[in-house]
Amino acid sequence: MSSYFDFFCQNKENESREKSTQNEDRILGTCYSMCPEDEVKLREAERLVHVLEVWGSERRLVKSYSRSAADSNMAVPHLLRPYSVLTNTVQYLLLDVTRRMDVPVPVLYDFVNDRLRAVRQDITIQRLIPTQCVYLLEPMIRFYVYYGYVLSGHPLKDYDPVLNKKYLLECLKWYLSCCDSIAKDQGNIDELSGFFSGLQVNIRESKTKLVNDQVLLESLYILCNLDDLHPLYRYLKMTKDLKRQEKLQLSYQIAIANLQGNYVKVCRLSGKLCPLLYCALSTYLPKLQWRALNVMCHAYNNKRLTVPSTALVHWLCFSTERDAKSACSHYGLKVNEDAILFDRSEFKTDARLHIPVIRNITKKFEVSLIDIFTYETSK
């Protein structure tokens, strides 16, 4: 199996051929705790309880991800969690565990990522219907976008951005495929956005709820694939109701400006983005800044005249003048006090990307971490 998304698509094809037979064969989980009893006993005996599963004197174990082996049977009902338990598990991981401050952020990310993979594994084995999949996948996508930004400056030994992008796109494509399936089954895609916005996941007793925001995720699909034309084709095929959404229009405009090489416009429009869309674009900024500086080396190529570093901050979304000058020096350009000398013969086209200083997203937008996982673009 190359991915859960591929397996889901294969199941959809099988459903169209053998719908009644498949419904009879579908496995229903009977584990009503976040971790099966068998795994709890094994991990406690082997001392494999994670520090994030310990809350004072209490232990809250969450099912860990395990690779399927040729000689193992994972389709066992008492090892699988039903939809309601999976929902509670996702909410617990994102709304409770992510607030822990007693471990480094990369450790927290690895733990939550592993447990979310186990959730997707249970979804796949049980072949949950699309309307259930979307509510489980949406908060996972927020998780990968947010931590992809927060951890972007960490070394590879602590965080792998390629792997994070893989999980992000897998969840995004799976989510959008489910949306398309729901729209097709309903026979009226115009009602899809309203259908989602009117429903909220509120399984556990709490005022804080995970939500399902299709507009946000359609926008993320565009901004997470700025070098890909497929999201733009998808946008053009959308209904008028979806196209009218401000955040979706903004994401499309940014993608078009990027394709046209208008990097200054991309950075100018980024000021209107919501927190998660800003995170998605920010992970692309190093590549955009490299391209823009390369273009400027040809446009402003001169042995004497310089460009003020303050202009670069304004044009290319650098956090500070210091960050702008650091990037220019990294690519071989000469920095004279508060100005940059653009000499195309000095520009290092083979240099690794310069990662800018990461801003505290919660302070920038004056939101909490919980808000990141629960806000809606329509409000």
Task: Describe this protein's structure.
Among the domains are: 181 residues, no CATH class; 83 residues, Orthogonal Bundle (Arc Repressor Mutant, subunit A). The protein has 379 residues and is mainly alpha-helical. The strands form 3 sheets. The chain has a 3-stranded antiparallel β-sheet. The chain is globular and about 75 Å long. It contains 19 helices and 7 strands.
Rg to the nearest angstrom? 23 Å
What is the number of beta strands?
A: 7
Into which percent range does the helicity of residues fall? 55-70%
Based on CA inertia axes, which overall geometry fits?
Answer: globular
Largest sheet: 3 strands, antiparallel
Strand order of the largest sheet: 5-7-6
Task: Give the topology.
Elements: H1 4-17, H2 19-25, H3 37-45, E1 54-55, E2 58-59, H4 83-95, H5 105-126, H6 130-150, H7 161-186, H8 192-197, E3 200-201, E4 210-211, H9 214-223, H10 230-236, H11 240-243, H12 246-259, H13 263-269, H14 275-282, H15 285-299, E5 307-308, H16 309-316, H17 321-330, E6 334-336, E7 339-341, H18 361-364, H19 369-374
Antiparallel strand pairs: 1-2, 3-4, 5-7, 6-7
Helix pairs in contact: 1-7, 4-5, 4-6, 5-6, 6-7, 6-14, 7-9, 9-12, 9-14, 12-13, 16-17
